[in-house]
Design a protein that fits this description.
The protein is of the alpha/beta class and about 190 residues long. The chain contains 6 helices and 6 strands, in the order βαβββαβαβααα. Strands 3-2-1-4-5-6 form a 6-stranded parallel β-sheet, with helices on both faces. Helix 1 (about 25-30) crosses helix 4. The mean pLDDT is about 85.
Length: about 190
């Protein structure tokens, strides 16, 4: 199958524990989209030999294996699919947001709370074993480039609140509040043993 020039790249990233990431439902959804020629799937975190992958999807799937920095790949992608059964704080989803990708994720992924409002409306899967709905969410984004771009811009803005500098600033404020609760005078005290 030749690579179409305007192919929409869908990325999935997981370094294992594929059951937790709901790879089964994602695979079924991609099979439902297999009639379309305008997309390709990028599997980051495993090689083909590590994943039970349907032969019908082989021509459209590229396995990158484990990577130290997925940030080098994300800017070349168009959509991230991550319909995990649960994932409290998925760093890869925040990295995808910072790269300007729309996400199709489950409501059980912590990053779903950080998505832009328009991405929440167009990318959250609530029935996690519903491959038809997952396929529809992905297909909507494949078909609507302007929507992908709008969501990408807004997700990039949303992701800034999770930068390392912002996280550090918030922890500093928290530690200062805790310190002031324990020491209302504000004076630094040192206990000698």
């Amino acid at each position: 199958c030749a690579l179409p020039i305007s192919a929409v790249w869908i990325v999935f990233a997981a370094g294992g524990d594929f059951e937790k990431r709901n790879l089964s439902t994602l695979t079924k959804a991609l099979l439902k989209l297999n009639h379309r020629e305008d997309w390709r799937f990028l599997f980051v975190g495993a090689g083909k030999e590590q994943v039970p992958w349907p032969e019908e999807l082989s021509a459209k799937t590229y396995f990158l294996g484990r990577m130290d920095d997925i940030g080098t790949v994300l800017p070349g992608c168009d959509i991230m699919a991550y319909p995990a059964w649960y994932d409290e704080a998925s760093l890869v989803c925040l990295e995808a947001m910072a790269s300007g990708l729309p996400l199709v994720i489950s409501h059980k992924v912590g990053a779903s709370q950080a998505l832009s409002k328009i991405n929440q409306e167009n990318g959250i899967l609530t029935n996690l074993d519903n491959a038809d709905r997952l396929a529809a969410l992905i297909e909507n984004l494949i078909q609507r480039k302007e929507l992908r771009e709008t969501i990408g811009r807004e997700n990039r803005i949303q992701a800034k609140q999770f930068s390392w500098d912002e996280i550090y600033r918030q922890y500093k404020v928290l530690y200062e509040e805790v310190h002031n609760l324990r020491n209302p005078s504000g004076k630094t005290t040192v206990a000698l043993a």
